[in-house]
Structures are given as structure tokens and as C-alpha cells.
Amino acid sequence: MPSTLKRFKARALARPDVKKAYDELADEFDFLDEILKARTDSGLTQAEVAERVGTTQSAIARLESGSSKHSPSIATLQRYARALGYRLEVRLVKQRLTRQSTRPTK
């Protein structure tokens, strides 16, 4: 039997308006997953990353939360990446058009 969260997600995503909003956030969710995985793979806590970056643990928590109220600069993301032993790579990727519409897909 699926978990309550999985059932809730399935019901919510069955609604076209919710599915559309969820899909529009896919890139942001993917990025957040990537930075959390990088920190986990580095074996560092938020506090340890904060010390290396020169900020507070709460600032790192905000960065990793993806809060719409906080949009970190590229310089901040570069410092975060360096603190983990990574480098930041920002690319523009041409969107493809679907056959059913002229709206770009991700």
C-alpha cells in the first residue's frame, strides 16, 4: 500500500492545474536535489559549509530550501560549490517544442 504522501501526490498531480505548476518547478527541484546530494556526498553539515563559505548555518538552510523569498547570487552559489569541493557550471539549454503545442518543454 502506497504511503499517505505518495497517495496525496498522485491525487494532487491528477489535477491539471497542480500538474502544470509542479512541472514548471521541475528545474528548480532538480537543482535543489543536486546541491543537497553534493553536500551529502561531501560529508559536510550545513554548519560546516557555512563556516567555509563565511556565512551562517541558517543562510545555508535557506539556500538549500529553495524558498521563493531567497534567490542566491551566482557568487554565493560559487562559494557554496567551492566549499563542497565542486565548481558551479551555469548553462543555457535551448528548449524543445512539443508536437502538440508551440509551448516549450523542459
Task: Provide a concise account of the structure shown.
The protein contains six helices and two strands, in the order H-H-H-H-H-H-E-E. The protein is mostly helical. A two-stranded antiparallel ribbon has the order 1-2.
Q: Top keywords for this entry?
A:
mainly alpha; two-stranded antiparallel ribbon; 434 Repressor (Amino-terminal Domain); single chain; 6 helices; 106 residues
Structure description:
The chain has 106 residues and is mainly alpha-helical. The chain has a single domain (4-105), classed as lambda repressor-like DNA-binding domains (434 Repressor (Amino-terminal Domain), Orthogonal Bundle). The protein has helices at 4-13, 16-24, 26-42, 46-53, 57-65, 74-84, and strands at residues 96-97, 104-105. Strands 1-2 form a two-stranded antiparallel sheet. The longest helix has 17 residues, at 26-42.
Number of helices: 6
Low-confidence stretches: none
Structural class: mainly alpha
Number of strands: 2
Largest β sheet strand count, sense and barrel closure: 2 strands, antiparallel
